[in-house]
Amino acid sequence: MDKSVTDFNVRLRTIRLRELIVGIIVTLILTGILTVIFPVIEESDGLFFIVVLLIGALLFFWALRGTKGLDRNIESIFEDHNRKEILYVFAINLLFAFLFTFLISSLDMLISFSDPTWVPLGEIETVEMDGSVIILDAIGAIIFAPIMEELIFRGVIFNRLKIRVGIIPAMIISSFIFAIGHEFGGITSAFLFGICMCLLYLKTDNILIPMCVHFLNNVVATILNLIGLDVVISQFPWIIPSTIISIIGTVYLIKYLVQETRKAKKQYS
Known about the structure:
Number of helices: 13
Structural class: mainly alpha
Mean pLDDT: 88
Helix content: over 70%
Number of strands: 0
Order of helices and strands: HHHHHHHHHHHHH
Largest sheet: none
Radius of gyration: 20 Å
Number of domains: 1
Shape: globular
Low-confidence stretches: none
């Protein structure tokens, strides 16, 4: 990390992978100390997750202290073209995330019409959760996860890899590492989401832009999960329009990835 750099965006790009690893180790050590002092942290996965991300965020803020330009980044979020792209990328990724669920539900529906004994492949189980657990999980997923995941995977890993291996391999590798941290069924959507975040960051040099998309994605995903709307739209008759809309969103996602990747290759070749 180059502490002589005073521009926020440039300082972020100078954070090295080894410094990130040191930061992760320090975060785990401090979390362990706090867990010993406050055993309640270990009793709640949601609280433990928040503490880890909070300490990590504080270390990033310490590393980026004294820089300028964050205010310009915030202002650019509300520029018309950035605002529209944030909403667009969020929408097409969200629709793709539901594609496999809808396709499996559609297959279940078609087979069950001819075979009443068919056991659904995509049967969704609902689990009752305590209110405090829901709140902690929501805080971690909505507030801290978008900030930390974008700083780590796009701000550091992608930035450092693109210097060593090039833009396209850097997008693939950083997005793959990002994806394997998600549940098995969401690895593909998380991988493509990561690619989109790399492209957005590359286009704008503003880490807050992918953070905003990530924030919207996690807000909507959390709400859908809490109210069970994802279960409702996976059932007949909603499954038919849901699948069609999801397929259309997937087509636009592929189109976006192809077009923006070509632009990135041309610009940084």
